[in-house]
């Protein structure tokens, strides 16, 4: 039987799915099987009509130490010096990053412990990142002769600007969670024992909101960074025009006028 490197749960009475990376002895370092299971779990949440938010966290003391460097797919091999590690990116990492960025519900990453290499890239691909005050964040690709991957080279300058992105990527120093929040790399920090409860509470809030509008907001913000005001204005208008016909828009306005909490249901 295939080992379960990813655990996915959604209690029947809640709209929040929880995905846990489950190789704690290796600080949840990523193998090809694990990357496939992670992508399939995100796609399952996207396809689950009753899920309205996704929390991602790690089992054990780490969040994710990035690629498992002992995996034969990447471990340098004197017998086979021309091994192409790009294969792993093309077939495993890229589809996962895309599944996260296109997830049909908002994603909250609870960084419970160290996030390194592609583990950090994947955390940053989530919509809201909340890290434990005890967690450190490190790119570390430079230490093994590689460039930031799994989206990090694109995400970093957009999150923290060129100067800080280059400092983090070229020096590869560990960043405390507090410093990461100060520089805008992540949204928030919380005491170690409060990270998951805060992520769950945040996901509960998101799950009660108009999901389709939230996901389209993510899309607009991502696209805006490679766009200009004119294109952004037209994209806003196109999406707003569609949302104007949605159940959630009518529900939101009616609830406001009737002074009651809205019951959103679009996905
Ligand atoms: C690990 C790992 C690990 C295996 C800790 N692998 N076992 C994409 C595609 C293609 C090619 C390559 O890369 C990529 C993307 C990438 O992600 S590249 C970057 C890969 N990650 C790293 O370089 C990080 C390596 N790990 C570390 O620097 C440290 O372990 C960190 C800073 C994450 C944590 O340090 P500590 O808290 O001191 O823990 P530790 O080093 O003692 O690790 C605990 C165990 O986890 C240990 O095993 P052991 O059997 O000795 O207890 C480590 O060997 C294992 N582990 N990271 N990436």
List keywords for this structure.
9 helices; 10 strands; 6-stranded mixed sheet; binds ligand LHQ; 267 residues; alpha/beta
Can you offer a commentary on this structure?
Helix 1 (32-47) runs parallel beside helix 2 and helix 7 packs antiparallel against helix 8. The protein has 9 helices and 10 strands. A 6-stranded mixed sheet has the order 1-2-3-5-7-10, sandwiched between helices. Strands 4-6-8-9 form a 4-stranded mixed sheet. It has helices at 32-47, 86-101, 118-124, 152-171, 177-183, 195-207, 211-224, 229-243, 247-257; strands at 6-9, 16-21, 53-58, 62-64, 107-111, 114-116, 128-132, 136-138, 175-176, 188-190. A hairpin with a 6-residue loop joins strand 1 and strand 2. The chain is α/β, with parallel strands linked by helices and 267 residues long. Ligand LHQ binds next to helix 2 and strand 6.
Summarize the structure.
This protein is of the alpha/beta class. The protein has helices at 32-47, 86-101, 118-124, 152-171, 177-183, 195-207, 211-224, 229-243, 247-257; strands at residues 6-9, 16-21, 53-58, 62-64, 107-111, 114-116, 128-132, 136-138, 175-176, 188-190. The structure holds ligand LHQ.
Task: Set out the fold topology.
Blueprint: E1 6-9, E2 16-21, H1 32-47, E3 53-58, E4 62-64, H2 86-101, E5 107-111, E6 114-116, H3 118-124, E7 128-132, E8 136-138, H4 152-171, E9 175-176, H5 177-183, E10 188-190, H6 195-207, H7 211-224, H8 229-243, H9 247-257
Parallel strand pairs: 2-3, 3-5, 4-6, 5-7, 6-8, 7-10
Antiparallel strand pairs: 1-2, 8-9
The protein binds ligand LHQ.
């Amino acid at each position: 039987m295939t080992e379960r490197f990813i655990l996915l749960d959604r209690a029947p009475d809640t709209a929040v799915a929880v995905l846990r990376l489950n190789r704690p002895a290796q600080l949840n370092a990523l193998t090809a099987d694990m990357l496939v299971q992670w992508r399939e779990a995100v796609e399952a949440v996207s396809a689950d009509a009753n899920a309205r938010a996704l929390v991602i966290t790690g089992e054990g003391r780490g969040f994710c130490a990035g690629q498992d460097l002992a995996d034969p797919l990447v471990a340098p091999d004197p017998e086979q010096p021309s091994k192409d590690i790009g294969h792993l990116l093309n077939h495993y990492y890229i589809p996962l990053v895309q599944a996260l960025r296109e997830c049909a519900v908002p994603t909250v990453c609870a960084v419970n412990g160290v996030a390194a290499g592609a583990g950090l890239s994947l955390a940053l691909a989530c919509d809201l990142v909340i890290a434990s005050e005890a967690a450190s964040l490190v790119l570390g690709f430079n230490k093994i002769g590689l460039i930031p991957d799994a989206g990090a080279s694109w995400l970093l300058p957009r999150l923290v600007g060129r100067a800080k992105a280059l400092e983090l990527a070229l020096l590869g120093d560990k960043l405390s969670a507090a410093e990461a929040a100060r520089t805008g790399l992540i949204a928030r920090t919380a005491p170690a024992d409060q990270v998951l409860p805060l992520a769950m509470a945040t996901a509960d809030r998101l799950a009660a909101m108009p999901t389709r509008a939230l996901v389209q907001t993510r899309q607009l913000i991502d696209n805006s960074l490679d766009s200009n005001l004119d294109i952004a204005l037209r994209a806003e208008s196109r999406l707003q025009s569609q949302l104007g016909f949605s159940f959630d828009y009518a529900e939101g306005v009616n609830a406001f006028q009737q002074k009651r909490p809205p019951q959103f249901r679009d996905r």
